[in-house]
Amino acid sequence: MKILKKIAVLALIVLVILQFFGPEKNEGDIADLQPFLTETNPSASVQATLKVACFDCHSSNTEYPWYSNIEPISYWMNDHVKHGKEELNFSEWSTYSWKRKDHKLEEVIEEIEKGHMPIDSYLWTHSDAELTETQIEEIRDWVKTSRAVMALKKDAPQ
Protein backbone atom coordinates (compact mmCIF):
# COMPACT_ATOMS: atom_id res chain seq x y z
CA MET A 1 0.00 0.00 0.00
CA LYS A 2 2.91 2.35 0.72
CA ILE A 3 4.26 1.90 -2.81
CA LEU A 4 0.85 2.74 -4.29
CA LYS A 5 0.68 5.89 -2.16
CA LYS A 6 4.17 6.94 -3.29
CA ILE A 7 3.24 6.40 -6.95
CA ALA A 8 0.07 8.48 -6.49
CA VAL A 9 2.00 11.32 -4.83
CA LEU A 10 4.64 11.22 -7.55
CA ALA A 11 1.96 11.29 -10.27
CA LEU A 12 0.32 14.27 -8.56
CA ILE A 13 3.65 16.12 -8.39
CA VAL A 14 4.28 15.44 -12.08
CA LEU A 15 0.79 16.73 -12.97
CA VAL A 16 1.35 19.91 -10.95
CA ILE A 17 4.73 20.51 -12.61
CA LEU A 18 3.18 19.93 -16.04
CA GLN A 19 0.82 22.86 -15.43
CA PHE A 20 3.78 25.23 -15.87
CA PHE A 21 4.58 23.91 -19.33
CA GLY A 22 2.44 23.54 -22.38
CA PRO A 23 2.49 23.48 -26.14
CA GLU A 24 2.49 26.63 -28.21
CA LYS A 25 -1.05 27.86 -28.82
CA ASN A 26 -2.50 28.17 -32.32
CA GLU A 27 -3.37 31.85 -32.05
CA GLY A 28 -2.61 33.36 -35.44
CA ASP A 29 -4.36 36.27 -37.10
CA ILE A 30 -8.01 35.67 -38.01
CA ALA A 31 -7.40 37.92 -41.04
CA ASP A 32 -5.37 35.05 -42.55
CA LEU A 33 -8.71 33.46 -43.46
CA GLN A 34 -9.63 36.35 -45.75
CA PRO A 35 -8.09 34.93 -48.98
CA PHE A 36 -10.09 31.72 -48.49
CA LEU A 37 -13.31 33.58 -47.72
CA THR A 38 -12.83 35.96 -50.64
CA GLU A 39 -12.07 33.26 -53.19
CA THR A 40 -14.76 30.79 -52.14
CA ASN A 41 -17.36 33.40 -51.14
CA PRO A 42 -19.40 31.36 -48.63
CA SER A 43 -22.82 32.67 -47.65
CA ALA A 44 -23.17 34.11 -44.15
CA SER A 45 -24.80 30.85 -43.07
CA VAL A 46 -22.00 28.66 -44.45
CA GLN A 47 -19.35 30.99 -43.04
CA ALA A 48 -20.96 30.75 -39.59
CA THR A 49 -21.00 26.94 -39.87
CA LEU A 50 -17.34 26.86 -40.92
CA LYS A 51 -16.42 29.08 -37.97
CA VAL A 52 -18.20 26.84 -35.47
CA ALA A 53 -17.36 23.44 -36.96
CA CYS A 54 -14.08 23.80 -38.90
CA PHE A 55 -11.86 26.79 -38.23
CA ASP A 56 -10.69 25.81 -34.71
CA CYS A 57 -8.71 22.87 -36.13
CA HIS A 58 -8.30 23.91 -39.75
CA SER A 59 -6.96 27.46 -39.48
CA SER A 60 -4.19 29.35 -37.74
CA ASN A 61 -6.59 30.74 -35.16
CA THR A 62 -8.11 28.42 -32.58
CA GLU A 63 -10.62 29.62 -30.00
CA TYR A 64 -9.55 27.62 -26.98
CA PRO A 65 -12.00 26.46 -24.29
CA TRP A 66 -11.11 26.94 -20.63
CA TYR A 67 -9.95 23.35 -20.16
CA SER A 68 -7.26 23.75 -22.82
CA ASN A 69 -5.04 25.23 -20.10
CA ILE A 70 -5.01 21.97 -18.16
CA GLU A 71 -2.10 19.65 -18.84
CA PRO A 72 -1.96 17.08 -20.38
CA ILE A 73 -5.26 17.98 -22.12
CA SER A 74 -3.57 20.87 -23.92
CA TYR A 75 -1.04 18.50 -25.51
CA TRP A 76 -3.86 16.26 -26.73
CA MET A 77 -5.76 19.25 -28.16
CA ASN A 78 -2.60 20.64 -29.73
CA ASP A 79 -2.01 17.32 -31.46
CA HIS A 80 -5.54 17.39 -32.92
CA VAL A 81 -5.11 20.98 -34.16
CA LYS A 82 -1.68 20.22 -35.60
CA HIS A 83 -3.03 17.20 -37.48
CA GLY A 84 -6.06 19.16 -38.68
CA LYS A 85 -3.87 21.93 -40.05
CA GLU A 86 -1.65 19.39 -41.80
CA GLU A 87 -4.70 18.04 -43.63
CA LEU A 88 -6.24 21.44 -44.44
CA ASN A 89 -5.34 24.91 -43.23
CA PHE A 90 -7.77 27.53 -44.49
CA SER A 91 -5.33 30.22 -43.32
CA GLU A 92 -2.81 29.02 -45.92
CA TRP A 93 -5.35 28.90 -48.75
CA SER A 94 -3.48 31.47 -50.84
CA THR A 95 -0.39 29.23 -50.91
CA TYR A 96 -2.28 26.27 -52.38
CA SER A 97 -2.19 25.52 -56.10
CA TRP A 98 -5.48 25.52 -58.00
CA LYS A 99 -5.39 21.71 -58.13
CA ARG A 100 -4.82 21.44 -54.38
CA LYS A 101 -7.61 23.92 -53.61
CA ASP A 102 -10.01 21.96 -55.79
CA HIS A 103 -9.01 18.68 -54.14
CA LYS A 104 -9.33 20.13 -50.63
CA LEU A 105 -12.83 21.40 -51.36
CA GLU A 106 -13.74 17.97 -52.71
CA GLU A 107 -12.39 16.42 -49.49
CA VAL A 108 -14.44 18.82 -47.36
CA ILE A 109 -17.62 17.30 -48.78
CA GLU A 110 -16.33 13.72 -48.55
CA GLU A 111 -15.31 14.07 -44.90
CA ILE A 112 -18.55 15.75 -43.89
CA GLU A 113 -20.78 13.30 -45.77
CA LYS A 114 -18.97 10.31 -44.26
CA GLY A 115 -19.43 11.82 -40.79
CA HIS A 116 -15.68 12.07 -40.22
CA MET A 117 -15.82 15.82 -39.65
CA PRO A 118 -16.11 17.37 -37.20
CA ILE A 119 -14.43 14.61 -35.23
CA ASP A 120 -16.30 13.02 -32.33
CA SER A 121 -13.87 14.26 -29.68
CA TYR A 122 -14.53 17.85 -30.84
CA LEU A 123 -18.29 17.32 -30.75
CA TRP A 124 -18.15 16.11 -27.13
CA THR A 125 -17.52 19.66 -26.00
CA HIS A 126 -18.78 21.62 -29.02
CA SER A 127 -22.29 20.33 -29.55
CA ASP A 128 -23.07 23.39 -31.68
CA ALA A 129 -20.56 22.05 -34.24
CA GLU A 130 -22.71 19.00 -35.00
CA LEU A 131 -23.87 19.53 -38.55
CA THR A 132 -27.52 19.29 -39.49
CA GLU A 133 -28.66 17.91 -42.84
CA THR A 134 -29.49 21.47 -43.89
CA GLN A 135 -25.98 22.67 -43.05
CA ILE A 136 -24.43 19.74 -44.91
CA GLU A 137 -26.57 20.54 -47.95
CA GLU A 138 -25.58 24.23 -47.77
CA ILE A 139 -21.90 23.31 -47.58
CA ARG A 140 -22.27 20.82 -50.44
CA ASP A 141 -23.91 23.48 -52.64
CA TRP A 142 -21.30 26.09 -51.70
CA VAL A 143 -18.42 23.71 -52.47
CA LYS A 144 -19.91 22.77 -55.86
CA THR A 145 -20.35 26.43 -56.75
CA SER A 146 -16.87 27.37 -55.50
CA ARG A 147 -15.23 24.58 -57.47
CA ALA A 148 -17.10 25.55 -60.63
CA VAL A 149 -16.19 29.24 -60.29
CA MET A 150 -12.55 28.40 -59.57
CA ALA A 151 -12.44 26.12 -62.64
CA LEU A 152 -13.86 28.89 -64.84
CA LYS A 153 -11.32 31.39 -63.51
CA LYS A 154 -8.51 28.90 -64.04
CA ASP A 155 -9.51 28.34 -67.66
CA ALA A 156 -10.22 32.00 -68.43
CA PRO A 157 -7.67 33.81 -70.60
CA GLN A 158 -5.44 36.13 -68.63
UniProtKB/TrEMBL annotation:
What name appears for this protein in its UniProt entry?
Haem-binding domain-containing protein
Q: Which residues form the Haem-binding domain?
A: 12-147
Known Pfam families for this protein? Haem_bd (PF14376)
- InterPro entries recorded for this chain? Haem-bd
Starting at the broadest rank, the lineage of the source organism is:
Bacteria, Pseudomonadati, Bacteroidota, Flavobacteriia, Flavobacteriales
Spell out the SMART domains in the cross-references: Haem_bd
Q: Which organism is it from?
A: Kordia antarctica
Q: Which domain of life is it from?
A: Bacteria
